[in-house]
Amino acid sequence: MSQQLPPLNALRAFEAVARHLSFTKAAAELNVTRAAISHQIKFLEEFLGFPLIERHSRTLVLTKAAAAALPLLRLGFDHLTQAVALMHGERQAESITVWAAPSFASKWLVPRLHRFSRQHPDIDMKISGDVGLVDAETVAESSVVDSVFRTHEVDVMIRFGFGHYAGCRVDKLLNVSAAPLCSPALVKDVHPHPLRAPQDLAFHTLLHDDTAYVGHPRWADWLVLHGVDGINAKRGLHFNHVSLAMEAAIDGQGVLLSIKNLAQCDIEAGRLCIPFDLDMPLEQAYYVVRPPYEGVRQRAVNAFVAWLQAEASASGF
C-alpha cells in the first residue's frame, strides 16, 4: 500500500526554506508571503508528525530527518521539472530580451540570474547592457525609451533615473543610496590609518565612478552632506565604469563612493565593506519599464518582472 504524500506546495515551501535557511528568502523566491511559508511548514510538520526545522534565536536548523530527506526531495523536483518538459513535447522555449543599466546588469542582475533560470527553465533570455541606451544627463528619458522599444526589440528594461518614461508601464524596483565602500583590509587595526571616521579619508585614495549617467554619486556631494571638511573631493583615481572602480576598491586601492545595492554581493562575500554607515540617499531609483502594449512573450515578461520584484524585496538593501 503506497504511503499518502503531502501537498506539493508544502514540500516546495520546505525545500526553499531548507535551501535558504530563511522563511523570508523562501517567500520571496516563491512569490508568496512569509506567513504563507510558515503555514505550509507547520502543515507539513503536522502531516508528518514530527518537526522539520528548529528555530534557534535568529537562525534555522534542520532536524536530522529533514536534512537526510532534503537531497532526495531536490532530486524529486528535478525529475518533476524534466517530466513536465517532456509533456510539453514540441513546445518551443520562450525568449525575452532585457536591457539593464550596465552597472546594474553586471553587479546586481547577473549574479542572481541562475535563480530565475532554475525557476523558469523554459524561458531563454538575452541580456543587453549597451551603454548607448543609458539615461544620460543630456538626453530626455522619454525619448530614449521610445527609441529602445521601437528599434532594439527589447521586451523589458531596468533603468536608473527619475521614472519619467512617457507612455510606458513603469514600476519602481529599488530605492537607492550611496555609501563609502572599501576593502575590509582598510578598516583593520594593522593598517597605518584604519578607516574609523570620515576624516580618515584624508589618508586614503578616493576612487571615482565617472560614468556619464544621470545621478551618479559624487564625493563632493557626500562630503558636504556629512560636513566633512579639508578633503579634496576631486583627487584620486577616476574610472569610466563602476565595475572598474569596484575592482580597485576590492583590491584595496582606495575608497569608492557608490550605490550600495550594486555592492551587495561583494559585501556579503566579504570583498567589500562599509567603513562608516553614512549614506547619501539619491533622488533617482531603479525602475522596471515595459511598453504599454502586451506582446506575444507576455507570459515570459510577467514571470521575469515578478521574479525581479521578489529578488528586490528580499535583497534587504
From TrEMBL:
The keyword Transcription appears for this protein: yes
Keywords assigned by UniProt, alphabetized: DNA-binding, Transcription, Transcription regulation
Residue ranges constituting the HTH lysR-type domain according to the UniProt record: 6-63
Pfam families registered for this protein in UniProt: HTH_1 (PF00126), LysR_substrate (PF03466)
Protein's UniProt keywords contain DNA-binding: yes
Membrane-spanning intervals of the chain: none
Signal peptide: none
InterPro entries: LysR-type_TF_proteobact-type (IPR058163), LysR_HTH_N (IPR000847), LysR_subst-bd (IPR005119), WH-like_DNA-bd_sf (IPR036388), WH_DNA-bd_sf (IPR036390)
Protein family per UniProt: Belongs to the LysR transcriptional regulatory family.
PANTHER family xref list: GLYCINE CLEAVAGE SYSTEM TRANSCRIPTIONAL ACTIVATOR, HTH-TYPE TRANSCRIPTIONAL REGULATOR
Annotated protein name in UniProt: Transcriptional regulator GcvA
Organism per entry: Candidatus Thiothrix anitrata
